[in-house]
Write the structure tokens for this entry.
Amino acid sequence: MSEILRPENPDQLVELVNWAVSEKQPLKVTGSDSKDGLGRPVQAQHTLSLSAFNGIRLYEPEELVLSAGAGTPLSVIRAALQEKGQEMAFEPPDLSVFYGQGNGEGTLGGLLACNLAGPRRIKIGAARDHFLGFSAVTGRGELVKSGGRVVKNVTGYDLSKLLAGSYGTLGIMTEVTLKVLPVAEKLRTVLVYGLEDAQAVSTLSKTLGSPHELSAAAHLPAAAAAGFALPRVSDAGRAVTAVRVEGPEPSAVFRCEALRKELSALGETEELHGKNSQDFWSKVANLQPFIQASDQIVWKVSTAPTAGPGVAARILAQRKGQHYYDWGGGLLWIGFDPAGIDDDGGAAIVREALGEAGGHATLMRAPDALRAAVPVFQPQEAGKAALSSRLKNAFDPSGVLNPGRIYADN
């Protein structure tokens, strides 16, 4: 069983990392373990918990900036922002239920380390685009700071962009700062029923290019829609295509009406208001169709939106599964039932299906043995692999921080 180490301040953390380097003891770095199933399994005798690096250190609603300990639960961050009518605009998903770890138990540092973003990414960017600065301890046992508490202070090398998506393999963040934004006054979601994948994604592409300023666009085939546990979606009995508008009430209402009028030629339409609309997009972000099917192997496939339906068709022609689209069709979520002891989880099928379309695929959920046996993240071509290796060596030359979390040899 792994020993849990709980440093209480940055000095203790530096001391622990220096000990790990000198004793050649790898560390599994964690916040709340809510995303332990994301990435390759880390083999380490010692787990380094950031639970003591907890709490909001600075929140200036007027300046749209918040700083907090990396181990602060997302539920605490969301509650503080909600009180001031603000939010993390990149709409981060809560994957704790998806990974079977309870609800709302993820941490702010873990969210940024994995660079997670939800449906609004198509309009406002990823987590790294809202990540202003941090304090961290590298694998060299050095305390470093980067960025600042306002956008104009982010000069020189923007290391925040580097640590976002590094999965704790380059540095252990102790405090992070991010930009926040006001919650939209009103949001409306327009639903169109019964479209096939190709027609739906084509429609999403057209509406995203329209003057209606969509903030989210998704398509749920009938099987995925049935698992949404939301009126007018799960009981529709057919595919559901959804687009969202946000903003001041007169603008949101006007754009919603215009969208329904334009989309009515394709099929029956409906609209979701307020909480129902909010719940719908939370379920899209939180991978609702795969929560009940907890044994399914789940892949995240990113490709050009126009290529998405073709990629999905090639995959599903070879292996039965359920799927849905986010980000206007550019993000394909697909789940397979396990298929036996020699199963590669669909890795060969998924990556071959990308083919000329290009893109990348990530194994988001699978048993530990499978995640250790197949490439969880898209294999890198030689130049990128060499660059990744040099970065790892620069920040963590002894390989003590989450070794093998992304790639087996890095």
User: Anything to note?
Assistant: Residues 49-182 form a domain with the Uridine Diphospho-n-acetylenolpyruvylglucosamine Reductase; domain 3 fold (CATH 3.30.465.10). The longest strand covers residues 171-179.
